[in-house]
Each structure stands twice: as structure tokens, then as C-alpha cells.
Amino acid sequence: MCVSLHPESVWNSSLLRNWSQTDRSRKLAFNTLTEAQQTTGLTEWTSWFNIDHPGGNGDYERLEAIRFYYRERVCVRPVAMEARTTDWVAAAETGEVTHSSLEKGFWCVNKEQPYGRICSNYHVRFQCPPVQVYWTDWAAWGPCSATACNDVGIQARQRKCMSVQPLPLLLVPPCQGPHMERRECATAPCQAKWTHWGPWASCSVSCGKGRRVRRRTCVKTSETVECVGRAGEIQKCGQNPCPPKCKQACPEGIPSDDCSHCVCEGHIIQGEVFSITGVPVTGAMIALASQPKIIRARTDSKGFFRLPGVCSGSSTQLHIRKERFAPVTTTSNSSRSSWVRVVLTSAEKPYVIKHPEDKVRYEGQRVMFCCEATGSPKPDKYYWYHNGTLLDRNVWKYEEDLVLRDLRPEQSGHYYCKASSQAGSIKSSPAFLNVIARGMPACNPTPESHLIRLPIDCVQPGTDSKFYNAGHCPHNMCAGSLDFDLRCRDSGGYCCGVQKMESKVIDCGSYKLPIKAVTECGCQKCVEPKVLVRGRVTIADNNEPMRFGHMFIGKERVGTTGYNGGFTLNVTPDTKRLVVNFVDPTNKIIDTPKVFIFDKRGGSVYHEVKVMRKQEPIDINAGETNTIMLGEIKGEDPIGEIIIPPNSFHKNNGEVYKGTVKASVTFIDPRNITTAAAAPGDLNFVDNEGDMLPLRTYGMFSVDFRDEANQEVLGAGEVQVLLDTQHVKMQEHIPKMKLWSLNPDTGVWEEESDFHYSPVTSGVNGRSKREERTFLIGNMEIRERRLFNLDVPENRRCYVKVRAYMSDKFLNSEQLEGVVITLINLEPRPGFSSNPRAWGRFDSVITGHNGACLPAFCDAQVPDAYTAYITGIMGGEELEAAPSTPKMNPNIIGVTQPYLDKINYQRSDHNDPALKKTAFRINLAKPNPNNFDETNGPIYPYNSLIACENAPVDANHFRFFRVEKDKYEYNVVPFQENDLTSWTGDYLSWWPNPQEFRACYIKVKVQGQKEVMVRSQNHGGTHPETVGQLYGIRDIRSTRDMHVANNSAACLEFKCSGMLFDQATVDRSLISVLPQGNCRRVGINSLLEEYLNKHPPTSQNNHSHAFNMLAPVDPLGHNYGIYTVTDQNPRVAKEIAIGRCFDGTSDGFSREMKSNTGVALTFSCPERTVTRESLFQRLQTNPRQTLSQMARDMREAQGLQVQGRSTRVVTYPFLSPRRRSSSSNRRRSTMRTQERQ
Description:
Blueprint: H1 13-17, H2 21-25, E1 39-40, E2 44-45, E3 58-62, H3 63-69, E4 80-85, E5 99-101, E6 105-109, E7 122-128, E8 131-135, E9 152-158, E10 161-163, E11 180-186, E12 192-194, E13 210-215, E14 218-220, E15 232-237, E16 254-255, E17 262-275, E18 285-288, E19 297-298, E20 304-310, E21 313-321, E22 328-332, E23 337-344, E24 348-354, E25 359-362, E26 367-370, E27 372-376, E28 381-386, E29 389-390, H4 393-396, E30 401-404, E31 413-421, E32 424-427, E33 431-436, E34 451-453, E35 467-469, E36 494-507, E37 512-525, E38 531-539, E39 550-553, E40 556-560, E41 566-571, E42 578-583, E43 592-596, E44 603-611, E45 618-621, E46 626-630, E47 640-644, E48 649-650, E49 660-668, E50 684-686, E51 692-707, E52 715-724, E53 738-742, E54 749-754, E55 756-758, E56 775-782, E57 787-793, E58 797-805, E59 820-828, E60 834-846, E61 852-857, E62 867-874, E63 877-878, E64 880-881, H5 890-893, H6 899-903, E65 906-907, E66 919-923, E67 939-941, H7 945-949, E68 958-961, E69 967-971, E70 997-1007, E71 1013-1019, E72 1030-1037, E73 1039-1040, ...
Parallel strand pairs: 17-23, 25-33, 38-44, 58-68, 70-81
Antiparallel strand pairs: 1-8, 2-7, 3-6, 4-7, 5-6, 8-10, 9-11, 12-14, 13-15, 16-17, 17-20, 18-19, 18-21, 21-22, 24-27, 26-30, 28-29, 28-31, 31-32, 31-33, 34-35, 36-37, 38-41, 39-40, 39-42, 42-43, 45-49, 46-47, 47-52, 48-52, 49-51, 50-51, 51-57, 52-56, 53-54, 53-57, 55-56, 58-61, 58-67, 59-60, ...
Helix pairs in contact: 10-11
Protein name: Ig-like domain-containing protein
InterPro entries: CarboxyPept-like_regulatory, CILP-1/2_8th, CILP-1/2_b-sand_dom2, CILP-1/2_C, CILP-1/2_dom, CILP1/CILP2, Ig-like_dom, Ig-like_dom_sf
Subcellular location: Secreted, Extracellular space, Extracellular matrix
């Protein structure tokens, strides 16, 4: 115990002797009493406090934080402090660098510790007097009593006596000393000073010679003093000579007074302004191009304007503009009365069509980044940024292109541009510049570790390891030899790749396994595989395919969907954002722009595209007010309505349409979660700074108005859109709600108008119950765009970590890349309780080598304010999510407790086992940074994207996995099918061409009660470089046929015959099919056998337990039991081939095995029958005779004689084959004798 003493207190020795030895030996770690206070009696220690842990930057036991959590347990002014570790070691004895202060508390910083140590976990306590009576600090000195200058007065200051314990009313705390001090003071001497000179007044003349004046003021503290000097100064000005008279050349008329334009008395410029759809534009502003800020006229309701007194001619240019339209500059050439017709196009925000590319350069070289944006009007200003900092245009001399010369390593980093116009701004994707310092290699020559899983029967002696390090070269860009370095995109880029490989042999115990391991990496030409987007377009309500639909990228038509709705798009290397607009030529489906994600490393990504069928049109009278409901769901009120005033419809030539209108309004209702996949665009907008930000929708609608007679598309003028506020569950969204339209070329939503809150009542269509409802009201014109959105920007955002695996073992080495993970934000109900039927936003991301991070809305206050529905699709196949029943297992789901309970993870079959298992739902609870359990994923704050992307595999994450039988693939030349850039050109490469992948499968039928493993060994057959050498091994377990008893089949991959990587000579691969078990070949497909015999050379099939063949070069079909598919992505080729093999057809697809169709080989694999009793069975039936027989056999084996009637059993290490045979024969003879008896 530490005790503070008052200076006037008297302590006797007996009191000190009463202290315990423990208290006397207890030491304070750091602080002593730093400020004397008046106390009485013995002081007391508080309890121990521990509010921080040493993770992160260190251990911080701040006094301010302790008071926040334990306000009543710490006195106002502690007199001492003690710090110890949780292991009860004093801070001074730990050897750690620590800090403390009675005002701030105690803290220990990790980075200050020697030898890389981290701080211990400390707790502290404070010493407080039982009765605290103390003076506060002296207040500041009060003002001097004298006010006049050069005078003497008195000033005072005070302090208060304080006590933390409550005292009876009117009782003053007993502090010693005065509560007030006084001292003499004096005022400043009397003085007079000039203020600073004021600015110079304007010159007395506009040109020629004149004068200007400036003044200052004398500031005095007494009338007895004066300033020295003059109060004003005069200076000559106007040295420039006066210009000559106006030089404005006016072929007609005279110059105006300000010489800005020509004036023609009696001349009138008249005109009309229309939109691109022919509708008159009201309120357009007319100005002269030389003075665009001075508005000289405005258009009336019919789009007309008059501009009197202005001459026509090439020198007179008119500038016409209106909000949400692109400005136009035009001229008039008539001599007397001019007529101008102007067409305004809708303003479009800038959109980047050429992004800067990643570059690598050596120090001292130069580089160019390019940027180009489109829009209406076209962007006229470009800004370049380096690591978020704006580059000075005067220093770097850039426009849309940025050139950097004499590069230095510190110039490495991210570069991006921002394009701006009157309509807005947009930022490009960042490009990374890597500047390699002089003397440093372009690539690290040492390969990275890359573990290859060995076959299940391969066990390396001495290590028992199932993996072998084959090495790997990271596919990073490097600085190669360029023919010209100032291009927007480097021609023939260079990447780090395999420079050297060595053939190795893996000792598997019973056999040897060849492999080619990477020993050196180097800089070489990049492998640029094809990047594809595949998919199928179907209608959301009944999955009917969109047949022969047109596909547009921008204004260019790029393809047509097939009969079954399928499509394939080739993505160019410079594509950053892929926007495809699907248009139905039959006009039964709404035009649907989709933003597709794709894998930049190559291969194809499959997308299941949903589109909405147009609502059946209704007949409305164009001369009347018409109301169309938005969101007609049975039993629920509409979300809003569209009100079209009378005579609002117009034709393309601007003529008002007065007949019957065929009106079709299709509403995508967020209350129905099945419509989420059919939503157009990707629900993003671009703010004023050029950043792309997310929107949260309350509904989208597509409008289609047509002339009843000739089906001509009609536009509409001012249309009102009403949104029922009862459907806006978050009241804070109401003031931020906007009406948006979709740009079909960019897939970006652009603002149409704001909503204003109004207590408008509605009794439309006899809905009396709607009379008391209020609406948000917005206005819009229906011109070129026909897709609209009721959205609000949302800034409560997070990221969700998801990984996909090859199986439910969830091995790190078996992560799947290229899986499309989709997250749908579900809409909250009142009180933030999730509504499982409604959605507010969707996002999709492709998994990489470290999973995927999906953006989502989240809330920090209420865990279930937002929830999400997450799915995973790979090549059209839905992956299964980790199960949540019958018991929540954190090790399977991938999220630890107690955060898992807070997230409330539920797979889609959680409450109904009959439902599919391919999705899960979670609460999007924003992690609490002060809770250690929530700082390790799977939900990350929006500003922690890098932490999410780089999270280790043992961090919390959600999981998907493929449902398939046991299989194994081994390649002598390692290749990762999920990263096509890892391809290596070698004669033994399984895939000889990185641009095209051919997958071959053979269907093997197995007759037997059990499923068996089937292996294919693939060797070189006829090519001189590979003959007899192993390409690889494939293992697959047969799949049970659910409709045929005791039958299963395996779709077994084998190495296709064809050209090798040199594209010089064909190799007929030698294939061996080996069922593993008690199997015997009982059938070969007759067509396959005939083909192999007619295409020599043939392979011998002398063993009935296997099958050998030289693989066919021709792509045989299901009639032969061979399935061949060629694709630009190996996984897609294999998935299609497997689906056809399961189905037993050449064009079908199935995940249910049909073992009797499309079979190449048939094996009989019966279970082995028991022909004699086992030792265990004989010991149970006749133990005495069995033990005697065992004893005799063992003595004979060791050359021993039987002595007496001893029954002692002698153990033997082994028996020779001959001895074992004779012994077994005797045992069988003995057993037969027993049976006869």
C-alpha cells in the first residue's frame, strides 16, 4: 500500500509498525505523487482495471477511458498508480518500455519493445484518499481595476475548495489557506499608432495618365498623444495608352456599346428549339457565344424565341442551353430575318472508354498513360492523380494523356484520370506503375512454393508427405524490351514466367512418379489467353429462353442469342467494364442492359441472365389524365403510381398525339426477391467527384408507349411519379430519394429529378383506403430513355468475405477461382427486422486465389437492420453453401462464435430440408472495432477492403463447395486450371494450347454393389518427344445409377490426341483405364472397338482387369462412349463434357448418372466371397484346437521340437511362401476332417 502524507500530518511509529510486511514490500511500478493535495487519514487503493489488450499497437490503460467505463470508482485526482501484468509481475520488472502519468494513465507501445516483443497485458489501480479535500487550480488573473492608459490598479484571482464526497447543506469543505489573491497592476502607456495602409483606390482615368490614392487611420489611446506622419499618399497611374476605338468588324450593322457584337436595327433572329424526340423545349436560354453568361432570350412553351437587334452571319454565334441538355452553339446566315432550328440532345455524364493501363519500367525510362471519356457534352478537362494526389498541370503538361520521363522508383504507385464536363465528372480505373530501381532484376528468379497433391497411393518414404513442392512463378508484369515505350498500351507485354524446368522423380514407395519442377523464373512475353463471357438469357417468370435476341455494346450490335438463349462474348484486353444491352426483336421483353463481371486472367465466366417480360399493354386516352399503378402485388398496396397529364404524348416529329395509346409499364418490384436477377444495370451512380457509388432501390420500371395504329413509339412530356412513403422503411431515406434513368450504353444510373415530400392524398381507382396516404412526388420527361429507378444513395457499407472450395473438406489448396458470388441485400421492415421476400440491391464478384469480397449494406447499431442472400455459381452449376443444420458448426461454416450467433447464419434449407442448399442468409452486422471477436472477418468495414482481400485463409469467411465424387488430377507439368496464365509450353503439358482447351472423357460402366475408383494413366503414344512418357493421372469414383440396381458409372478424363504445343506433329496418347478393385472387363463398345481397329496402331488388351487404347484423334460421340468438348476455358470444357457423359448424349446435360446409355467400357466388380473362416472366427468356434495348430506351425517354422504336452505359443516374425502354403493346406485338411466328424 502506498500512502501520501499531508505536510502538517503527524504519524507515529506504532501506526507504521502495524503495516503488514506484504504492504511494505509492495512497490509502485512508476508514478509517485506529482501534486500535493490535502488529505486526512490513510489513503486507499481502487480495484484493478484492465480495459485494453496488447493486440494492435499495444496496451493502453487510459485514465480517461477508465473513467468513462467506471466513472464512480476513480477519484478526481489520484495520488499514485500501480501497474502489473495479469501474471502479477510489476511493470518495472518486465523489462518492457512503458509510460505512465497520473493525468493520462498507463500505456505500452508494441513497436518500442526490443527484439520484436509485444507488450504484456497490464492492469492498473490508483491510490485515492478516503476524504479528498483540495484546492482547485488558481483561476486566471482578473482584469485590472484601472481603465485609463498609464494608470495603476489592482487585479485578483480565486480558487475553490473541493470535496468529492457529498457534504451537508451549507457546510463548506475545510481547506487550508486563502481562496483569493490580489496584486498591483498597471495599464499600458498612452500611445498613438497608424493602421496599415489601405489598398490603392482605382485610377482616376481608364486609360492614359491619372492618379490614385491610398489612406491610413490614426488609432489613439488618449487625446494627449498624436500620430506622426501623413494620413494619405498619392501615386501616378494609367501608364498604358488608351486603345483605339472598337475594332469589331461588322459587315452588317454597327458595333455594340461594349464592342462585343454587331447590332442591326430592325433585324430579328428567330428560332425554335426541340429535343431529339421532336418535343419543343421550354425555357431554353439563348445567349451570344461571346457572352454566354448574359441571357438575351428564353424559349416559350412551343420552343420559340426572338432575338431582336442582333445581326446574322458567321461572326454571330448563338449559345443555347438548358439543364439536363447538352449545350449547342450555332450560327445564322440570313440577311434580313433569320430563322434557326436547334435540336438539343439529353445531357449524359462522362464515361471513360479508354482507361490507363498497368506499366512496368526501369529507372530512367519514360511512360505514357492514356485516358479518354465520352459524354454529352464531350468532356473538355482532364485531371491526373498519383496515389490520390492531383498532379500539377503546369509541371507535367498533361491533357488526356500523361507522359512521365526520367522515371524514379518513388514515382511507382497508382495513377488515374478524372474527366469533367458541364454534365459531371468520372474517374478512370487506376493503373499501377512499377519503377524498378537500377541493378534490380525484372523478376525474382527464385520460384515461389507451390505444393502439388500426390495420388492417394503415393506415400514418399521418410516423410509420409502427400505433397510435393513443384515451384511456381507469379504472373507479375515485368520490364521487357519494348520497341516503343510511349504507347497507351504496350505492344506484347512482358510477364514473369517459367524460365527453366527440371525433370524430377518422386519416390512413391511402390512406384516412381515423374514431375517437372520450376527451378528458375524470368521475364518473357505474357501469355494472353482469351477472356470470354458466356451465359443464357431466360425470362424471369417461366425460364423461357430469349431466342435470337440482339446484343449491343454501346451502339454496336455484337451478337445474337441462340435458340436456347445461349450467348458467348469475346472480351477485349482493354475492357474494364463490360455493359451488354439485350434487345428483343419481337418487342415482348424489356430492353435489359447488364453489367458483366469477367476474369481478366483468361477463360470464361458463366452468367445466368434473367429478363422481364413486358406487361400486356392497356389502352389509354391521350387527351385525359391517366394514372398507372406501380407494383400490383395481390394483397398489398402499390409502391407508387405514374400520373400522365392530358395531351402529354407526342410523336417523334414533335406533333402532339391525341389518339389511343398502347401503354405498357413493367415494374420490377423489390418486394419480390425473384425479380432481383432481372434488374437492369448494376445499381451504381457517379457522384460529382467522379466516384462510382451504390444505390439502394425501391423499385424500377420500364415504359413503352405506342401509337395504336402504326405502333410508333411515343414520348411524353411532364410526367409525375408518386412514391408511397409507407414503403420507405428507413425514414432517413425520404429526404435523399431521387428519380433516376438508366444510360443503356454505360449501365450507369443518372439523376432525373429530386422527390419532394408532400401530404398529397389519393383516391385513385376507387381505393378509398389510400386517401390518407402521403407521397414523394417527382417529375420527369420520357424521351430517349425508357428505364427508370426509385433509388436512394446509401453510405452504410461493408464487405463480406466468401471463399469457394472443391469439396466439403475446405482445404486451402482446393480453393476454386472464377466462381461468381452474388449478394442480394434484403429490404428491412419497420423496426429493422428483415423482410425475407424483399430486396434492395445486388452485387456480383468473381473469386480469386484468395476468395472474394462482396460490397453490401450494413448497420452498426442493429445487427438485423440489413440482411443478405448469397449464392455461388460456377459454369452454370450452383455450389452448395456450408450447412447450418442440424447444429451450427463454426468449423464448417468458417465463422467463430459468438460472432456467428450475431450474424445468424442460415442456409436456404435451414427451416425446410426440401429446399435447395445453394444459398445462405446472414445479418449484415457491421463489426465493432472494440470487440476483438469481430475484427477478424467475415464482415469488414468499407474502408478495410485491402484487409478483406488480403485476409489469411484461417480468418473468418463464408464457404461454398462443389458437390462431386472423389476425384484426383495429376499433371507432370503443373498447371492451375483456374489461372490460365500459369500455362507452361512443354511437350508433356496436358493442355498443349493456352488459347483452346479440348477435354476428352470416356464412360466406364461398373457392375457391382459398390462404387469403385477408376484411374486413367496417360502416356505419350506416337510423338517422338513424348512416347512412353507420362502426361498425367486421373482418378474418379463411379457414381451410382439411382434407377438401376447394382450399377454405377464413371466419367473418366483422358489425354486427348492431337497436336502438342509445337503444333508440328500429332500424338496418339496411350491411355490405360484401370478400375481399382476386384474388377474384370466384360464389355467394349463395338463401335469404339471397330474404330480403334481401323485406325492403327492398336494397343494390346491382354489383361482383363484393364483397358488400353491409343486415344482417337476424331471427336467421337456418345455412340462410342467418348465425349469431347473444346472451349477457351478448360473448366467449362470439362463441365460440359461431364454433363454430356452423365446424360449419355452428345448434346444433353445431366447431373444424374445414366449408366446404361453412351457407355464405352463395362467392368464387373463383384464383392469377394469368403471361402474359409478367418482366424478370429476359428478362435471363436474352436479355440483350443486352433491355438494348438498355431503352436505346431510356429515350432515347425523355427525348427523346434514338441516337448511333452506343452501348449505354449511361440511368436514368429514371418513365414516363407512355401511354408505358409503347406501350413494353410494342413489347416484346411484339419477343418475338413472336423466337418466330416
